[in-house]
Amino acid sequence: MSSTERLKRQQMESDALIGQLLRSREVWKNELQKLDEVKCSLPNLVAGMQALLAGLLPTGHTGKCQETLKVKVVEVYSVCNVDVWQKYKTRRDSIKRRFCSQSVIKSPEDSRLRANPRLHSLEALLQQAGSSHIFQESCNEVLLLHGTSAESAQAIALHGFHGRLAKQSGLYGKGVYLTTDACKALSYSNRPPECATAGWFVVTRALPGYPHFTDTHRQGQKRPPFRTLPNGQQELYDSIVAAPGIIYSKAAVARQVHWEYVVSDWQAYPEYLVKFQRL
Ligand SMILES: [Zn+2]
User: What residues does the PARP catalytic domain cover (predicted)?
Assistant: First the structure.
């Protein structure tokens, strides 16, 4: 066997092995029994996550946003929680069925959603790092960041974003707050008692679905607004998106700087927990 043939064969064997590993990593999502541990350490993703954070700092963000560059990723865990996954998947199936029946896939909101350049960075990096996750673009499924404390990260791994963890009184109403911008996620992890030295990001699979792009704040709102379907019926939007540039307070002329997404509890699944230290 020539050296070229031997190399080719080795490559094929390693490809097959990687394929097996990837399938086994995701197989729990189709099982109904619980795993003993909902967290699984993935040291091979640490370097990739580190590179990703720098890429998720928007150009031109200075001051506190630059603290993103002083963050060192120390651990990455995959979250394998069958109960939480099943609830998320039920919600995803429901949005998917509705999208199919209404033919809303090419809505103007879709192109506005995809206009955020960092929306694709998380997915691309995870694929490079060997992730086999498949995202359903047909119902606008995306990966986003959620910054939080150690205590909340553990609770999210165990129970998802359900209940007390959803922000009750945020600027854009009630829901789980997510972002593509590492600096914004970092600002949410600034919580005592450990904030001086460490923090957590939750890399979250989320369903903005048919989003409402707000042009003002929505403080005190418990759900997204209604929209009118072509047949005249009313239906709630699936999420709220606050894009950079909107003026959320006319009184103080305060402008939104980061991309923020607000979804309901079961429209978010915590794929990875990322522990970081501040240098
Ligand atoms: Zn920023």
Answer: 1-279
